[in-house]
Amino acid sequence: MFYDNFVKACNLHNKAPSAVAIDIGISKATVTGWKNGSTPSDATLHKLADYFGVSPEDLTGSTGPAQRNTPDGHAQPDFIVKYNQLTPEGQKEVLAFIEFKQAQEASIAARGGKAVKKPSPSSTETLDRLSEATREAADQENNQY
Question: Do 27 and 21 form a contact (C-beta atoms < 8 A)?
């Protein structure tokens, strides 16, 4: 779907797909990959949308949550795509938060759906790990400058 919309946009602007690739600073091989079923990164998709004066959704044809195809052709939810674009530190933070939410929801389910204001010890441990991961990431970022 993306590649077909990309080619239509190229035709409307009287541009060859390879010429557009050069104009926005990507390789012709990338365009060949799209022709074979891969999809552009979010950054490239936005460059293309700006170049053609359309929305990213116009190019992808999507109306719901964004999805990407894996090399074997399976759809990947946008969450997975975004998670994979995070730094290892960012991924640790996301995993810690997921563990926190799972523990929280399990605790609520165990009480018959009734929430309590005081976090359980396992939730406190998870929050501590999340805080530590966030602190480490901030320290690393600050040390870069």
Answer: yes
How far is residue 51's CA from residue 32's CA, in Å, rounded to a whole number?
19
145 residues of the chain, pLDDT tens digit each: 789 889 988 988 889 999 999 999 999 899 999 999 888 998 999 899 888 888 888 888 775 544 555 555 555 566 777 777 788 888 899 999 989 988 888 888 887 777 665 555 556 666 677 777 777 777 777 777 6
Query: Which neighbouring-strand residues pair with 68?
Result: 76
DSSP string, the chain: -HHHHHHHHHHHTT--HHHHHHHHT--HHHHHHHHTT----HHHHHHHHHHHTS-HHHHH---SS-EEE-TTS-EEEHHHHHHHTS-HHHHHHHHHHHHHHHHHHHHHHHTTS---SSPPHHHHHHHHHHHHHHHHHHHHHHHT-
d(CA 88, CA 57): 29
What predicted TM-score, i.e. pTM, was given to this entire model? 0.44
CB proximity list for 60: less than 8 A, separation 6 or greater: 1, 2, 5, 39, 45, 66
